[in-house]
Specification:
Elements lengths: L2 H32 L11 H37 L12 H29 L8 E6 L2 E6 L4 E2 L3 E5 L4 E7 L4 E4 L7 E3 L5 E5 L5 E7 L11 E7 L1 H12 L8 H12 L29 E2 L4 E2 L2 H9 L1 H4 L12 H13 L2
Parallel strand pairs: 1-5, 4-10
Antiparallel strand pairs: 1-2, 2-3, 5-8, 6-7, 6-9, 9-10, 11-12
Bound molecules: dinuclear copper ion.
Amino acid sequence: MTGSQEQETRVRRPRAVAGFAVAGVVAASLLLAGCDAPDILRSQGSSGQEIATLALWIFAILAGVLLTVWVILVYVIVTGRRRREKDASQNKGNLRIEIVWTAIPAVIVIVLFILTMIVTNRIDMPARGAQFTAVGRQWWWDFDYKDLGFKSPNEIYAPVGRRTSIDVVSADVIHSFWVPQMGGKVDMIPGHVNHIHFTPLKTGEYLGECSEFCGVQHGKMRFLFVVVEPEEYTAWVEHQQQPAAQPTGAEAVAGSRVIASVGCGSCHAIRGTTLRGTFGPDLTHFGSRRGIAAYTLRNTPANLLRWIQDPQGVKPGCNMPNVPLPSDQQREMTAYLEELK
Ligand code: CUA
């Protein structure tokens, strides 16, 4: 390599790096702008807001560090060039400067540590009186309101302004409970009860998701966290405690017979009927839920029919088998399940 070539490469390399960095930022922004994922920086839960504030403080401090380093760097490059010809001393052996530039980062790290400890302590108080248990399963969520006598798979309600306190476990592999707009994540570990609590600050529907890779359908392991006024929450609890509604339409009545005869009850339960399975989601109030298959599909009759006809097509690898049934029976089952409000 000749001298001039070498110089050219030297100049080009930083430009290439800068080019990659800009392209990366642009690509990331486009990707993020394109997806409808919940905005974790717009938290509507108490812990989430504490964490977001902490993140902003840390960002501000680190941005200050970065700016300071840049300013010093530019200063050193400029003055260094001027002094190139002379034998520039590098402050070798200057004890005072060495102490200062060791002490400053140490102080910054200590400040970050203290800020993080304060927030961690505030959001991670000891477990007290969980309202329900969240059980992670491949690949859905079993929300068990044991004390109240019902289960509400893949969809939970919580009163606004009051503390929601949840015990978190797993029935198979490690999952992670996460409602991005409420607060932090907590691992769901087989044989070990973890705990999470936070106070929802605004009514609305918030997406929850599994945040720990747990198998092929990890990406389709979601749930809905619905924050409502306290009265509406009480009404929801009372409604969930009721056994399943009796079918009314002719198709639904037929569907209730089909579902009892084709073996759905070995996995599913419908309170008030002969179906008592515990392996799959409780379907007692299936029709009142907004999602199907851990919020893989919106709960509409067309989607439910699609799910019943071909669960392995919608969610390959899931534990719901394709059951070959005549199409009129599939339609009857759909009619019955949608009546279970
Ligand atoms: Cu469950 Cu990932």
